[in-house]
Request: fold
Amino acid sequence: MEKFKDWTTDIEAQDIATKLQAKYGVIFGEYEFSKICFLRMMTKKSKEAAKIISTGFPFDVKDNFVYYVLIFDKCWQILSDEQRYLTIFDMLLSMSSEGFDPESNNYAKISQKDVKEFSELLAATNMLYNWSEPGVKVPNILVEEKKEDV
Reply:
């Protein structure tokens, strides 16, 4: 019997990731989006709107996914569109561009953010550290220009 059966593939999050890759190709250009699975957890409880997990061998052989991005519906619904874009941006920053290469030492690794990645996230939010809290007004990173001086 399946432990969690109330889930679906999350097309919205996948579309956001694709748009982010197109806009921020310098950061996400080498990511293999066909190896990222976006799932919407409909009833599972979470304090966060999204979580990333990696698979690695032998699970990647069966499903061909290296990373799973789990979207928790109840938390996700509270976020504005702009916060959703930043949430996916944040999840993508947790992946290494080398994380898709089975020959790399960073294969399927989830990286802790370094100063450069925090700078990219803060630049995208116009320096809002609380961008993920419900009701916080954040910029639309898909239409507004990213600051280049950070």
